Amino acid sequence: MTEPKSRARRGVEKSEILQAAFDLFAEVGEAAFSIRKVAAIVGVDPMTVLHHFGSKDELLRAIADHGLRSVEMPTATANWRDDLRAVGKAYRMLAHHHPRVFPLHFRYNATGPADHISSEIVYCALRRAGLTDTAAAGLGLAFYAFVLGFALAEAEGLLRAIGPAEETELSALDPTMYHATQDLIPVLKTLDPSLAFEDSMDVFIAGVADLAKLKPRPKPIVECDSKCA
């Protein structure tokens, strides 16, 4: 763990406090995280931390956004499908690199500037796909629910190949009731989370394209213009 500074400091930058808070949270998780520990690491009074961020909750929100800025966030392109895939991969990478920080993204509607950049890319992609604004808003939230949920499940070890104990449990099920589950045991033993993510993303994108055909927006946005870049 980062060692506390021995003497109090004045004029510390907000960015330095945020970096120290992020590093601490990424190392110890929320249960062992505190404003007092952050202040000790930076060498300031706890009230200085609160002066910069207003509250612990706002500091946690800033930590989440800082984490998102630490991964490579894509820029909008002319291909809405590629844009959705790129944003999804960025959040999955965040979960892999900072598994303790990642759950904070479930707590806030938006964590800050980095989150707004990613959501702008997603909403623009969905509008350029031909969705109405109502559908784009709803499926934008659904996109994040899918991506964040998948990434968290993977980071927590839920999306992985089954082990011997799990194989034994599934094999013991009544085959007349669970024939599909048992047929999939060989595949579940070699499950590749990356392939599962790509397949899931393809299904989501195909669904967006189908919905755009069923309920097209009145004036399709073909290109990524200045309002949708």
Walkthrough of the structure:
It is a single chain. The chain is an all-alpha fold and about 230 residues long. It has two domains: about 15-55, Arc Repressor Mutant, subunit A (Orthogonal Bundle); about 70-215, Tetracycline Repressor, domain 2 (Orthogonal Bundle). About 60% of the residues lie in helices and about 0% in strands. It has eleven helices and no strands. It has helices at about 15-30, 35-40, 45-55, 55-70, 80-95, 115-130, 135-155, 165-170, 180-185, 185-190, 195-215. The radius of gyration is 22 Å and the shape is flat.
Short description:
With 229 residues, this protein is mostly helical. The chain folds into two domains: 14-54, Arc Repressor Mutant, subunit A, CATH 1.10.10; 69-214, Orthogonal Bundle (Tetracycline Repressor, domain 2), CATH 1.10.357.10.
Q: Which characteristics define this entry?
A:
flat; Tetracycline Repressor, domain 2; mainly alpha; 11 helices; Arc Repressor Mutant, subunit A; single chain
Shape: flat
Major sheet: none
- Looking at CATH, the homologous superfamily of the largest domain is Tetracycline Repressor, domain 2
Order of helices and strands: HHHHHHHHHHH
What is the count of structural domains? 2
Number of helices: 11
Q: What's the CATH class of the largest domain, please?
A: Mainly Alpha
Termini separation comes to: 41 Å
How does the helix and strand content classify structurally? mainly alpha
- Measured on Cα atoms, how large is the radius of gyration? 22 Å
Low-confidence stretches: none
Quaternary organization = single chain
Helix content range:
55-70%
> Total number of β-strand segments?
0
Q: Return the CATH architecture of the largest domain.
A: Orthogonal Bundle
**CATH-assigned fold name of the largest domain:** Tetracycline Repressor, domain 2
Instruction: Determine the mean pLDDT.
Output: 91
